[in-house]
Design a protein that fits this description.
202 residues, alpha+beta, 2 domains, five-stranded antiparallel β-sheet, two-stranded parallel ribbon, 12% strand, elongated
Length: 202
């Protein structure tokens, strides 16, 4: 007598679920970096390029050293976030979104935090690290291979597998030899600690 099997047995159902779970475990990690690097990394790179272009324009117009001057003797230099935010203070970059990487959880309150001129900016208010005043004044024409800004490593990292580096000719390079996280990673340089990115701070 022949019997037709119209349904899975319990063992077959469990095996099918396990196979699907294993396949998802293999596929999802591969898709996550691709999704992050898709719309977000180019937007982040464009943000840095916009900030860099504005900074170069300012240097060309007004000369050296302007961004390391604080309005009073008690504060000798800007930190990197304030240096980047000076583009907002001078209205060279009016859109506060240019100061935030879309992959980061940073928030400058629609520019409200940036608008508090000459006050300390928190690590989550600007998604980019900039040159610090300890290096002295910027020059009229900085060498094109000199770092200007980068993704920061404060609060939430901008990206998972590397950082964008902005140079003084306004070109941006993606670099996987620099750690995107503050604590660093084995064999990778750390922003704010290891040359050449030790000149950059949030």
């Amino acid at each position: 007598m022949r019997t037709d099997r119209g349904a899975f047995t319990l063992v077959e159902l469990v095996v099918a679920i396990l196979l699907i779970a294993i396949l998802l475990g293999m596929i999802l990690p591969a898709l996550r970096p691709a999704r992050e690097s898709g719309p977000h990394r180019p937007k982040c790179r464009n943000n840095l390029r916009r900030l860099g272009t504005a900074m170069i324009w300012y240097i060309d117009q007004y000369g050296k050293g302007r961004y390391y001057s604080w309005p009073g003797p008690e504060q000798p230099s800007f930190n990197g976030a304030q240096w980047a935010a000076s583009m907002y203070w001078t209205a060279l970059v009016n859109d506060p979104d240019h100061f935030l990487c879309p992959s980061s959880t940073d928030d400058n309150d629609g520019g409200g935090r940036l608008g508090r001129r000459f006050t300390a900016l928190g690590p989550g208010h600007v998604s980019y690290a900039g040159r610090t005043g300890i290096l002295g004044a910027i020059e009229d024409k900085m060498p094109s291979n000199t770092l200007m800004m980068s993704d920061d490593t404060e609060a939430a990292a901008n990206h998972e597998d590397g950082v964008n580096l902005l140079y003084f000719d306004a070109h941006v390079e993606w670099n996987q030899q620099v750690s995107p996280v503050a604590g660093g990673q084995p064999g990778k340089r750390r922003i704010g600690f290891d040359p050449p990115v030790d000149m950059l701070r949030n």
